[in-house]
């Protein structure tokens, strides 16, 4: 059977962030192992005790069988049973410890991994985030951490337990009767060949199967999310058909992995049966020839049967580890993002923002901005207007220090923004975009991030400055009210006010507003302008204006078209020039 | 039942009266699969249980110095191995088949339910429930339904084994018969607390994941303003809580593991002691002693199966209940069937507000109260769950609420304020039920999507380049077809304005007789909006179009503007005419607030000497006072 042609796990989009190379992954695993050396050693030790204790039973039985078949009169039954009971107590206690230590180790490693990842993520340079978006990171912290959970929680501890256990059993078999160990190993080639065949195919197949199943659920989630759109456009039947297609794709992978196991299972069962038969046959004839005792044979046969469980455990968890490796590569890949600009000696002297012959593009071969120069004097208000895709937003991001120009320079008070760290830049310039993220947590958390040391009075002052105090004061728990998804949901306008209050707290002297209110319902946006006024007061503002009344009030309007500034001047100047801006203004104002 | 038949052309009508009935309904759907699984499960477990007998036979033959007996025993081991092998594989195939059957059937039922409920879902808590059932509950439901067959197989084998022992070795069989039920239920009392702890751990893990994704989603804000350490320490605390809860849960599970070692172990000790004495007395042979020992270790398997089924039941109970509840939801507004089929044409008229949109014209609607606009738009499409009790909107005199839902939607397409872009290629996005009169190219052009197309084509080239590992596509200067580019979920990779324009293009392609658009260009810049207004008008020539907006650029293009205040159409006419005659209208569309006279849009530092009195409610409706003169 061939794997299905459609692979739901195949990337549909280019990875926006790097995936860790084999070397990075290996280095990380080594580091992880070093950090958890002690708990790992403890796990192996308690597991060894539990495994050895579990071997006492067959040993005692073999001993008894030997004595009974020799017709011995004195069985010392009490002593045997006593030893058995002691071993059982040990096995019980140490099995419990093994399970617990295994879980503790797994959880600790998992916690390390996810925390490491977030530490790396929050240190990413703002430019990388702007370009890559957060979608890729988000899928890494959810899907990949999830996949790793299984591996860390179960696969790593279980595999180490199983390996130690199997090794000790083979060792015990050798100690009991060396020929029996070699007799058991007769079956090994069957397992090795079958296992290799299986593991060459399994990890990829399971990844696709899981992705296929996730696709079934996400198609449904999308139908639910888009309920209104689906109904309005009469897409119901198509969504059902899509859901069925996703199920068909997923089931195709289920059939394929089932087929893989239909090969593996007989191989494993055959291995066990062959090992047992060979031990009985070879061992038995040795007993008959007097080279081995019947007691040793009994013990040996029971040990071989005990091998079934650790071998099955290894087969069960090994592919999980292989799948986890891919997720791990995606998590540690974040480490390979080139770091942010070093905080050089560049320190601004003054507040003038200046762009000088700036050229910039997102791809190597295509520039979006073609030699733009612009001076933003402290305290003035500059509006950037122009059609979509003209480069307004890009210019805004360069002025906010998020991207560094390819050629030319963007300076603040004479110092290049590109030479400063994100932390320094943001104490001077802030970019306000259409994302008004309200973090899950208290209202206080949501404000505190802008000025970590602020006291309540400062927080309330900030809320008042943006006109947000009426609704904030209405909250029973005040600043301790839990907001964000799952708690009190703030309206888009309130979310916007929170974002503005953060700016008041962060207090940068220059703001770049990129479509700050454009995602809002224009009817609600009207009421927000008062809040905005409270923030802009006394600051230098570069506004990317969608609404012409914003432009109208600016000191300087720059009309951007095709990556160039084509008109520059005050509202009255530009209207008098009768150019592109004037035409638009007349149309908007209805006074042609 | 074959996996090839999945997905089913008809997943059936489930019994949703209770969770248990739902489980039983699923069970009945796969009766054949259940019987097959039970059969092979019994064969598999019986063969495994017989293995110790073969080992005992071998030991006995060796003790008796019988080479022939040994050979026979080894042959028996191998043939039992073959039976085990077949039983194991075929049981697995049947069981997995049953699981897939149950899971796929529930997923199919859910997707049909979601499609049926449509807009009702977004208004009810049900939305989250449907997704929760699909992502979490389906697996548990499938698990329980599937485990039943193995449970019955385990019961059959255990009974058989006990019966066999009673016949051959009553002395040993009796203790085993007593012990098995005891051992089977021994760990059961520990399961509920263990499950509770596991649930706690899951809840904490969910919370940590939520915090992490929330932090990542807002990372641009954090990097732009600060507070990384604050959020990191918050996440660390949550992550450590997960760890603690997981270890707490592991304590319970390790205890269960210990009980599973200790109790059967004790019984094994008893068997060894008792059996050895019986052997010493010559009442049984050494081989039989080894057989009994082996049987006891093999009994562990059916014992685990009992536990698993008990666990599956406790886990799936709540899941089945939730699934049944979700599948039992119905649309509240019933399809009226007085007018079958025919799509009405003519003027669009809303009796509640008195809004009239003449057939074939471009009508713009300005709402004084922002919150009322969405409700109004919704009502214009008929069958609105929010408008129960209000008179239905009429098209050419026909009440939409009395038409079947499908016909009403065919007659009027309402694009709400937040239309969702479904993931897929751009071609798939624009492939919606339509009249066929408007091509995708024309719609995209009218909605000014040129820049979106080039962005998508660009992304396509990047993917091709990465996939090839070389610049083949780019070097050849091959124009990538943007229609083949994929949009991510909700079009998140695009800007707000780009998303809005694509959604508009989709509605234009549908080319409905009546198109209602609620704020279709609120995130679009003025330059582009002006062009869209022009394109929209040209493309909808002769069709009825209603746009709810306050943008002068759109209003200026309308044949007729209706001003709706407090739920009633209070003025109608041309945009410029209304600007001149209605001060409230002017205040809404030009953003001057008559009550304080201050320009609030962006006051200059010097131009705000005193704080303007803030209205107590932000939505305060401007009163009809003399308008402030325009400054230009």
From TrEMBL, chain A:
Q: Name one GO cellular component term.
A: plasma membrane
Major place of residence? membrane
Q: Which residues form the ABC transporter domain?
A: 353-587
Give the transmembrane region(s). Answer: 40-61, 81-98, 155-174, 180-199, 263-282
The record's listing under PROSITE patterns reads: ABC_TM1F, ABC_TRANSPORTER_2
Quick check: keyword Transmembrane helix in the entry?
yes
Gene Ontology MF annotations: ABC-type oligopeptide transporter activity; ATP binding; ATP hydrolysis activity
- In this chain the ABC transmembrane type-1 domain maps to 41-322
* SUPFAM superfamilies documented for this protein: ABC transporter transmembrane region, P-loop containing nucleoside triphosphate hydrolases
Pfam families (UniProt xref)? ABC_membrane, ABC_tran
- PANTHER family assigned: ATP-BINDING CASSETTE SUB-FAMILY B MEMBER 10, MITOCHONDRIAL, ATP-DEPENDENT PERMEASE MDL1, MITOCHONDRIAL
The protein, known as: Multidrug ABC transporter ATP-binding protein
The record lists the organism as Wenjunlia tyrosinilytica
TrEMBL record, chain B:
Q: In what residue span(s) does the ABC transmembrane type-1 domain sit?
A: 39-306
* Pfam families with a match to the protein in the record: ABC_membrane, ABC_tran
Topological category with respect to the lipid bilayer? Multi-pass membrane protein
Q: State the superkingdom.
A: Bacteria
Give the keywords, sorted. Answer: Membrane, Transmembrane, Transmembrane helix
Q: Name one GO molecular function term.
A: ABC-type oligopeptide transporter activity
Q: What is this protein called?
A: ABC transporter
Q: Which compartments does it reside in?
A: Cell membrane
Q: What is the lineage of its organism?
A: Bacteria, Bacillati, Actinomycetota, Actinomycetes, Kitasatosporales
Region Disordered, annotated ranges: 591-632
Q: What is its main location?
A: membrane
Q: Which PROSITE patterns match?
A: ABC_TM1F, ABC_TRANSPORTER_1, ABC_TRANSPORTER_2
Query: Transmembrane ranges?
Result: 35-58, 70-91, 148-168, 174-192, 253-276
Q: Does the keyword rRNA-binding apply?
A: no
The cellular component terms of Gene Ontology attached to this UniProt record, alphabetical and capped at eight, are: plasma membrane
Here the segments flagged for biased composition (Pro residues) are 606-616
Query: Where does the ABC transporter domain start and stop, copy by copy?
Result: 332-591
